[in-house]
Amino acid sequence: MKFATKCVHAGQQPDPLTGSIIPPIYQTATYVLPEVGRDLGFDYTRSSNPTRQILENNLAALESGKYGVCFASGMSAVDAVMKLLKAGDHVVCSDDVYGGVSRHFNQVLASFGLQFTYVDTTAPGNVADAIRDETKLIWLETPSNPLLKVTDIGAVCKIARDAGIPVGVDSTFATPVFLRPLELGADIVMHSTTKYLSGHNQIIGGAVALNDEDMFQRLKFLQKTVGAVNSPFDAWLTLLGIKTLHLRMRRHSDTGMRIAEFLGAHPKIARVSYPGLKSHPQHAVAAREMSGFGGMLSFELKGGIPAGKALMNALQLCQLAESLGSVETMITHPATMTHVDVPPAERNARGLTDGLVRLSVGIEDPADIEEDLARGLEKA
Ligand SMILES: Cc1ncc(COP(=O)(O)O)c(C=O)c1O
Q1: Is there a contact between 138 and 91 (Cβ–Cβ < 8 Å)?
Q2: Is the distance from the beta carbon of residue 236 to the nearest atom of ligand 1 less than 6 Å?
Q3: 127 and 259 housed in the same domain
Q4: Residue 302 shares a structural domain with residue 205
Q5: Are residues 220 and 321 in the same domain?
Q6: pLDDT in tens, 290-332
Q7: Mean pLDDT, residues 348-373
Q8: Measured from the CB, is residue 329 less than 6 Å from ligand 1?
C-alpha cells in the first residue's frame, strides 16, 4: 500500500456488522465477557478500545512500524517512553525541544532519578561525546521546536547502534508524510497527534510507533497501568484527520516555503529558520532525510521584541495561539507562550531569544496569509 492509501485505509475495514465505511466510535468503558476467563479481545477501555486500536494500527502503518500505542497527549506519550527507564539512567537529548518536554524532564523526571544531558544534536559528534555508561536513551526532536534545527537521524542512529542505545524521535513537526525515523534506524517515533496528524485543532493526543515487540509490550503495560489514554471519540477524530494528512501536508509545505521566502526577503526581518531554505544550516540533511519541509518556521525581526509584539498584535488572519500543525495559521511568541518555563538564561544560551516569533502556516490561500503578514509588518 502506498503512503496516501495508508492515510485513508490502513488498519480500517468497513464495519462487519453494518458496512459503515467510517469506523464506529466504541464509546464504552467496559465489555461484557461471554464467560468467566474469556473476553472478545477487549476487557476495559483503559487497556484497549476498538476505535483506539484502529488508530494505533493506522499510525504504525504510516510510520512503517509494527506497533502503535496512543496516549492522552503528546506529553503522556513522551512520559510513557521515559518510564521505560529507571532511576540512575541517563538520556542524551536535543537541546532545542518543546518547552513542555524540557519542563517534564527537568522538573518532574529528574526528581525520580533520571538524568538528562542536552546537546546540539545537529552535530552528531556531540551525541557521541555525551554518551556515558548509564546512557539508556537518545531523544531527538527534529525539526525542533521552535528553532527548526534538523538532526541527521541516520548518523545519530549509527552512533547509538554502535553503543547499544535506543533512539527515540519526536517527529511531530515533520509527520510521517515527510520523515519516517524508523526507516532511518530509530527505535521509537513519537507524535503529538494534537498537531498535524489530527490537523484541525480538535483534540489533544499523543502516540508512539515502533518495531520492537518487547518495548511495545512494556508500553502497552504502561498505557493500561498509568491510564493516560485518549478517548474513543478523540481517536476517531484523529482517524478522520489522518485521512487527508498527505494532502494537507503538501499544502502546509508549499505555503511554508512561500512564506519563508517572503519573510526572508522582507526588509524588517533579521533572520528566518525554515529547513527548506538553502540558507538553513541543515538544509542538506533535511533535503536528504525528509521528502518535504513542512509548515513550521520561526523568525526574528530587526526591531527585536517590540517589533515582534507589534506584528503579532496587528495580525488579523494569523491567530495568536499556543499550538501548531492545524489548518488555521497560528503565530506564537515562544518566550511568553510555549517555552515560558525554560529559564531565560537557558533560553538565551539556546538561541531562543525574546524576539523570536514562531509561525505555523495553515492551509488558507497563501496570498491571504502573505497579505496579513505584510500588513502586520507595516506596524512592526
Ligand atoms: C514537538 C512537540 N512535542 C510534544 C508536544 C506535546 O504535545 P501535547 O501538547 O499534545 O501534549 C508538543 C506540543 O506543542 C510539541 O510541539
Answers
A1: yes
A2: no
A3: no
A4: no
A5: no
A6: 999 999 999 999 998 999 999 999 999 999 999 999 999 999 9
A7: 95
A8: no
For residues 58 and 207, state if they share a domain.
yes
Which of 242, 266, 289 is the last residue in one of the domains? 242
Q: Which domain holds residue 348?
A: 246-379
Final residue of a structural domain among 218, 242, 266: 242
Contact present, 360 and 330 (Cβ < 8 Å): yes
Same domain as 273, residue 228: no
- Quick one: 161 and 211 in the same domain? yes
Name the E strands within 21-112.
Answer: 67-71, 90-94
Q: Are 369 and 375 in contact (CB under 8 A)?
A: no
Same domain, 299 and 357: yes
Question: Is the beta carbon of 234 within 6 A of some atom in ligand 1?
Answer: no
pLDDT of residue 349: 86
CATH classification of the domain holding 324: 3.90.1150.10
Give the 3-state DSSP-derived string for 299-327, with helices as H, strands as E and coil as C: EEECCHHHHHHHHHHHCCCCEECCCCCCC
pLDDT over 90 (residue 219): yes
210 and 357 fall within a common domain: no
CB-ligand 1 contact for 102 (6 Å cutoff): no
- pLDDT tens-digit series, residues 229-251: 999 999 999 999 999 999 999 99
**pLDDT tens digits, residue range 7-48?**
999 999 999 999 999 999 999 999 999 999 999 999 999 999
Ligand 1 atom closest to residue 205's alpha carbon, by position in its atom list: 10
Ligand 1: residue of 188, 195, 337, 359 to mutate (most ligand atoms within 8 A of CB) is: 195
> CA 235, CA 49: separation in Å to the nearest integer?
10
Q: Cα 91–93–95 angle (5° rounding)? A: 150
User: Ligand 1: does its nearest atom lie under 6 Å from the Cβ of 73?
Assistant: yes
| Catalytic residue numbers, as ranges | 46, 98, 170, 195
By most ligand atoms within 8 Å of CB, the mutation choice from 145, 189, 196, 208 for ligand 1 is 145
Give the integer Cα–Cα distance in Å for 55 and 76. Answer: 17
As for how many domains the chain has, the answer is: 2
